[in-house]
DNA sequence: TTTCAGTCAATATA
DNA sequence: TATATTGACTGAAA
């Protein structure tokens, strides 16, 4: 849903004043930092797996979407911010021109305090690729290492114990989120009955490469040195587990297996029990007949959601195909990437087109993605579909009185 | 006490 | 300059 950089940039080129960025949107609307917004949108969790706190940003999003002047307000804020920036800049320029000594004075005066402040700040640890690889290997052997193992790892890699602990926490958590997405895709694929499509077929193959997205894009080989990709193994294992496959020894990933199985039971994406119009327990309904083709763009999904006969499952399924799609299905996706309507939340046609523009730039589906970057494209679709789903549910629920329940 | 979810914020990347 | 990644942190739950 949210943009990936390229399309956003292009959108800005077309409509420089209508681009809404993650930073502005996050800080103004969601109360999150840019990085969190990016993360949230790139790797959304199924609604039913979100805690109350985790749902807050989406509720805020919904409230914002319900505001008829949402984009305008944001634009205003952006303008004001820009103005203030220019003002500051202007004044600082004139300051430095008028009294150059003052700037040096500032330097002197600040030199004393920022320096220690800087020293107080712990430098960010950046793990070397070899270190990451070693940690991944260790993870594959033992996702939950004992303190002793952690100690050993830390010693071997010359890292702090806390760094190793943190790495395992983060890695587990991020892998889990990737698995959610996988499950969503798997679930919607089977629901949509599109598993025979080339894109769907390739999706499983793409899966292994998908694995490396859990940790960024680095392509280190796994411990076993498989050619298919870094986390190919752990991912396929995990997915197998989560999809009810017998999988390997439960002892190794003992805690993962039940979790996977559990999530597989309700692998349906964003089936918010208290929100959606799915059946109880948030189970998926039958796939809609008129669900858009897998090639449907995320933007279209978003825009047409409220009018859709069924809820986000379709958007998810539409996306799931594209999300998992490798290069093979890219062409069709690209060919269909075109925006023609406005977001559902538009209050007026005029505002709608403006809003569409802004949302497009914000969420990055304003134009066809660069043809050389299929991964971007599929990621964008993934984001789009997942968040379309959430937003749609929120919208639906909001249109009923349920919104009251989520007030916070 | 450990693990997890959510987030920040520094840094990388486009 | 915007978005993506990721190590670290906080608070809550188990």
Polypeptide structure, described:
Mean pLDDT is 57; it is low at 1-18, 98-118, 193-351, 364-373 and 401-408. The protein has helices at 5-14, 22-30, 34-42, 52-66, 70-98, 100-112, 114-120, 129-141, 147-157, 161-192, 198-211, 232-242, 256-265, 298-304, 313-324, 330-335, 349-363, 374-399, 403-406; one strand at residues 214-217. With 408 residues, it is mainly α. It has 19 helices and 1 strand. The chain binds a DNA duplex (14 and 14 nucleotides) through α1, α3, α10 and β1.
H and E string: HHHHHHHHHHHEHHHHHHHH
Low-confidence runs: 1-18, 98-118, 193-351, 364-373, 401-408
Total of DSSP H or I helical runs spanning 4+ residues: 19
Specify the oligomeric state: single chain
Strand content: under 5%
How many angstroms separate the termini? 24 Å
**Which value, in Å, is the CA radius of gyration?**
23 Å
Task: Describe the sheet with the most strands.
Answer: none
Structure class: mainly alpha
- Shape, principal axes of CA atoms: flat
Say how many strands there are.
1
Helix content: 55-70%
Average pLDDT taken over every residue: 57
């Amino acid at each position: 849903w949210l943009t990936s950089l390229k399309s956003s940039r292009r959108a800005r080129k077309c409509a420089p004043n209508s681009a809404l960025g993650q930073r502005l949107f996050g800080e103004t609307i969601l109360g999150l930092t840019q990085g969190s917004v990016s993360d949230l949108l790139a790797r959304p969790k199924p609604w039913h797996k979100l805690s109350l706190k985790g749902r807050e940003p989406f509720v805020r999003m919904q409230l914002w979407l319900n505001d008829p002047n949402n984009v305008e307000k944001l634009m205003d804020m952006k303008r004001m911010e820009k103005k203030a920036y220019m003002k500051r800049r202007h004044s600082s320029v004139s300051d430095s021109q008028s009294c150059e000594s003052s700037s040096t004075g500032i330097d002197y005066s600040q030199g004393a305090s920022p320096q220690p402040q800087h020293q107080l700040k712990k430098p960010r640890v950046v793990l070397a690729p070899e270190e990451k690889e070693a940690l991944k290997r260790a993870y594959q052997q033992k996702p939950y290492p004992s303190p002793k193992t952690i100690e050993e790892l830390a010693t071997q890699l010359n890292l702090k114990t806390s760094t190793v602990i943190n790495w395992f926490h983060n890695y587990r958590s991020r892998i889990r989120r990737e698995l959610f997405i996988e499950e969503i895709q798997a679930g919607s694929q089977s629901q949509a009955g599109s598993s025979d499509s080339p894109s769907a077929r390739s999706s499983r193959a793409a899966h292994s490469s998908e694995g490396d997205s859990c940790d960024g894009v680095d392509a280190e080989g796994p411990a076993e040195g498989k050619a298919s990709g870094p986390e190919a193994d752990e991912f396929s294992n995990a997915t197998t587990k989560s999809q009810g496959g017998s999988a390997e020894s439960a002892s190794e990933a003992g805690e993962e297996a039940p979790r996977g199985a559990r999530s597989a039971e309700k692998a349906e994406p964003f089936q918010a029990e208290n929100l959606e119009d799915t059946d109880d327990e948030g189970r998926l309904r039958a796939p809609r007949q008129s669900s858009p083709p897998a090639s449907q763009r995320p933007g279209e999904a978003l825009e047409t959601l409220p009018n859709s006969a069924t809820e986000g499952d379709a958007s998810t399924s539409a996306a799931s195909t594209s999300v998992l799609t490798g290069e093979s299905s890219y062409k069709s996706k690209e060919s269909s990437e075109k925006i023609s309507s406005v977001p559902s939340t538009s209050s007026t046609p005029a505002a709608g087109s403006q809003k569409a523009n802004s949302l497009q730039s914000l969420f990055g589906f304003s134009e066809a993605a660069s043809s050389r970057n299929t991964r971007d494209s599929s990621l964008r679709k993934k984001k789009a579909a997942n968040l379309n789903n959430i937003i749609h549910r929120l919208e639906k629920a909001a249109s009923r009185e349920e919104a009251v329940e989520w007030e916070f």
